[in-house]
Amino acid sequence: MEAETRVAVIAILVRDRQSAQSINELLHGCDSYIIGRMGIPYRQKNLSIINIAIDAPQDTVSRLCGAIGRLPGVSVKTVYAPGE
């Protein structure tokens, strides 16, 4: 039986550019769940902003965000769509 999925938006703020490759590897591991991705370099603030729209089991989203949030110079927050 397939796990129930939830739609969420993951906001990632990256100050340490050294973490970019690790973020991309983690996202690649969940690419079958990713609906869309937008990245914005904000050079004036030395910050990269990444937004991910995802439809995945909640534990998958939690693991992904936890792994990303443990990277140096990275902040992550998740917002889930209201229950169906």
Write the layout of secondary structure elements.
Layout: E1 6-14, H1 20-28, E2 34-42, E3 47-56, H2 58-69, E4 74-80
Antiparallel strand pairs: 1-3, 1-4, 2-3
Description of the structure:
The longest helix has 12 residues, at 58-69. This protein has a single domain, classed as 2-Layer Sandwich (Alpha-Beta Plaits). With 84 residues, it is of the alpha+beta class. The mean pLDDT is 94. Strands 2-3-1-4 form a 4-stranded antiparallel β-sheet, covered by helices on one side. The chain has helices spanning 20-28, 58-69; strands at 6-14, 34-42, 47-56, 74-80. A hairpin with a 4-residue loop joins strand 2 (34-42) and strand 3 (47-56).
What are the defining features of this structure?
Alpha-Beta Plaits; globular; 42% strand; 84 residues; alpha+beta
- Mean of the pLDDT scores? 94
The CATH architecture comes to 2-Layer Sandwich
Task: Tell me the series of helices and strands, N- to C-terminal.
Answer: EHEEHE
Low-confidence stretches: none
What is the strand tally? 4
Oligomerization status of the protein chains? single chain
> Based on helices, strands and strand pairing, what is the structural class?
alpha+beta
Strand content: 35-45%
- Superfamily (CATH H level) name: ACT-like. Chain A, domain 2
Domain count: 1
Q: What portion of residues is helical?
A: 25-40%
Task: Report a brief summary of the structure.
25% of the residues lie in helices and 42% in strands.
